[in-house]
Amino acid sequence: MLSQVFQGLCKPSDVDATEKPQRVLTCSFYFPKRFLESPWFTCITQMSHIPMKMSIEENRDWLSTQVLATCNVEQSFFNDWFTGHLNFQIEHHLFPTMPRHNYHKVAPLVRSLCAKHGLQYVNKPMLTAFGDIVRALKKSGALWKDAYYET
Q1: pLDDT, average across residues 88-93
Q2: 59 or 86: whose pLDDT is higher?
Q3: Are 88 and 107 in contact (CB under 8 A)?
Q4: What residues does the Fatty acid desaturase domain cover (predicted)?
Q5: Which tens digit of pLDDT belongs to each residue from 28-68?
Q6: How far is CA 89 from CA 3, 65, 73, 81, in A?
Q7: 125 DSSP assignment
Q8: What share of residues in the chain are helix, strand, coil (percent, to 5)?
């Protein structure tokens, strides 16, 4: 698929002399952007999801499941900008259609609702969240390695 896209954008044949520089310019911006964007997007989405422990056997209600299956990353100007306000994953799961820049406004209400119902509201530093990704991947890799070499 990617090779077809690349060939379609950067194919030198059947392109007149005026289109060729534009296609090369497009390729020179598109592919580095995707190379940088993909790891960023993966880190932003996974730091709030991978490390959370959720069991099928618990059979909780919708609200509890949304709160316990995700976590937030501490609010700061940098964290809000870097994550596009998706550092408020709990609020994002509870209010998916709410504009992201409003999540910080409902966070205190969600936190008090969680305290009222005895639900853990997890809010961690960004570096801890990134470390959780590495630890979760290391644990998954060890499980896979044990299963693969045991068989």
Answers
A1: 93
A2: 86
A3: yes
A4: 36-122
A5: 888 888 888 888 888 888 888 776 777 776 767 888 888 88
A6: 34, 13, 8, 14
A7: -
A8: 70, 5, 30
Where in the chain are the domains? 2-43, 48-150
Q: Which amino acid is at 10?
A: C
- The residues facing 73 across adjacent strands are 124
Cβ neighbours for 11, distance < 8 A, ≥ 6 positions apart: 23
Angle (deg, nearest 10), helices 19-46 and 126-150: 90
Question: In sequence order, which residues have a C-beta less than 8 Å from that of residue 121 and are 6 or more positions away?
Answer: 67, 72, 90, 110, 111, 114, 115
Which helix (H) or strand (E) segment is 124 a member of? strand 123-124
**What gap in Å lies between CA 58 and CA 109, rounded to an integer?**
25
Give the single-character DSSP code of 98: S
